[in-house]
Amino acid sequence: MSGSTWRNPLFIWGAKGAAEELPSNPHSSHQDIWRKTRESKTKLLPVGRLRYYYKWPGHGSRTWRRLRYWPTRRRVLHIRGEYNPKILRREKTIVDKRPIWWVLGLLALAAAPLFTPLDLQNTAMTAGATFGIYAAINLCWMLVIGTASIYSLATYAIVGTAAFCTAWLSIKLGLPWWMLPPIGAAVGLIFGTIIALPATRLDGFYYALLTLGLNELCRVYFLTSKEFGSATGGLYGADTYVPQGASQLGQLLIGYYACFALMLLALLLYRLVNGRRLGRILRMAPEKREAFAEATGVNFRQARIRVFIISSVALGFIGGFYTANFRGVAFSIFSFETVLLGLAMLVIGGIGRAEGAVVGTLVVVFFDKVLISLGPIRLIIIGAIMLGVVLYLRNGLFGIKAQFRAWRDKKKSERRSTRAEKGGEMLPEEATEAHDKDTVYWRRYDKMQRDYLKTLVTPEVIEEHRSSPLGQHSEPLERLLLYFRRQPQVDKYAITVVEPFKAYRIVALSGHRGVAPRVVEDKVYASTAEAYHGVFLRRVQDLLES
Amino acid sequence: MDVWFVVSNAIVLASIYGTLAIGISITWSSLGLVNLSYGFVFAFAGYGAWLVAQHVSPWGPAVLVAGILAGALAGTIVCALAFIPIHDKPNFTVRGLIATLAINLIGTQSLLWWFGPRSKSLPEIFGNWKVHLGGIVLTADKIGNVLTSIIMLVAVLKWMQSSRRGLEIRAMMMNPHAASIVGIGVRRTGFYVMAITGGLAGLASVLLSQTYYIAPFGGLTPMIKGVSIALCGGLGSVRGAVIAAILLGLNEALTTVLIGGRYVLITQFLFIIAILLIRPRGIAGILDRAREA
User: Fold this and answer.
1) ipTM surpassing 0.90, yes or no?
2) In a domain, A381, yes or no
3) Which chain B residues touch A364 with a CB distance below 8 Å?
4) Does the pTM exceed 0.80?
5) N or C: which end of chain B has fewer CB within 10 A?
6) Domain ranges, residue B114
């Protein structure tokens, strides 16, 4: 609140009892409110506002060579070329860095045996081989769940059936190891076709529950059958590709690299199915939008069944490889725990991505096979990770980035909406309709000004105006009067003379030529000064009501 | 091998699995949650009953009530972990399914860790008497199983028909969104539903333990049977679940007698697949009125 001095204009005329200067009643400065409105209330953060891409230097005169790989016309990296608008120089941006991460990760896996400590070598190499096989299984499963969106839990049933059949054939007929994966693929084709049959009719959870039962059915069948060695906990003694004459380390290394190669094959399959025509078709038909896809001519059912059967064949192949790798197969492949751990691998990584399947498998296999000395606690840890991921993450570890961005954008817009001033502004629809865009800003300014002027209206100011309606006034009254006098002609108050020096009345101007002013009240004032004060009171009232 | 032996076995199995299946059905249709942690709830209830029989009293009804209460407790735990945090989040059905599976993994492994792999057995709840009825012998546990599960089921269904809370649950089954609009608390109802279905699972657990033992992973087979029955009867339909339970119990008993015990699951799944191929939403489910996740 600041006060200014009021110079009495009547003082020099020697009015009775008049003081030359009096302090005007205290009021807040208009500068304060202006400064407060203008200042930025945005909290500025130093990081996280823009997406940062490194800009590689571009070419001088020709476009750079684009490396494309056979048999497609695709490029190895998705690189965008553009001119920097500020320095007008050519720049390159790597839009999708995932291939780089893939190459680095696969190189690290390939070189991993060199860096394992000697005392851990046995455990780590065995775990590595298991990782390769499980990653391959999970990539095929990801095709079924992610690409084809068939919630099948019978993956390990297919793998196990193929593994048991090939192991049995190998033991009974003495088949060599290289025949096992193709035979497994054939078993997978038959089994996959059988369980694809209900998938044509059932959807979502009905199918998941049914396949869960099928898995249990396989477990009970193989466990109770005499042919498959129910007494020994599994079927062992099949032919293997690992040369028995080699040293233990050599055997471990051969097993590791063979499983690694299997994983690479599965990755290739994932790429071929998900990244090409079938995957494109199915991306058109996500869950709950099948009707739209169908209307546009996409036969999503056929595509789904195709993906299912392709991955069943691949799973059968993996089953045959499993037998050839471990010289047989145990009943535990059908157990509910195996299904749960497999699902944990997919969920932790994130459903619908190849990298999710591989990294999730890495995490779970690390806990399950490397920390084997922990006992049941390791499975509890895996379960807790799974639960945490499901409760807090929308799509696994690889969905964190997108989820964080969505959360940050939500917070940003929330803060923006709390910063917005209410009142005086136009609604967005109204603003686009307004012919003169200046009115948008003028209304906001006018609202601020009226808010300020309302603080100036006090009994002292009204009393001051009553005592002298014309002449020089104190600052608050002067500001009020300037604002009132500046109002447009429409509905502006005026004084009409009913009888000179005797009767005056307040009217409101129409603002249009030829249209008479309208009478606003019956009250008749005896003098001009009284009428002026009457107009002032009405305007103050209108201001306070606005 | 007379017909009546088959029928009595069928009825016993149907009543126990039906109890589980109705629990799964109610959970799905009112909460939209596919509860696959029944294996854990089942084993938890069994161990609860075993602890009471061991430390408090081996008296039959006390053990039974302890099993039901432990089941209800496990049900509320599952609800608090898997339903409350994510029931309004995107993609709830898939995430809820996986969350219950994770709870199953954690729970059964914890039980294994705590109680060890050796299985436990409960005292005989219904005594050790027999009734000769026109040539067939009905043992005490058979009669007791059937009577107890039917009484419990009828009590639950009557409660759902006549009480205020039951009305809320049924409103949730009809339309969860509309139910929440008219002021029925989704979370509170979730706790009721999970406690009741958990109690049913606990009852089934104690009843089945008259024949089998209590083990950390012993809940798996009953859960899969219950899920299959619920699926076959149509998720969300009590009447369908009852019909499916009778049919599958009959199938199980007949297969055991005619072909052999190891073919039970095969015939059962062929039966279920055949039914689902004809009616994708089960016996009672009508395609359009099924709950959309």
Assistant:
1) no
2) no
3) none
4) no
5) N
6) 3-289
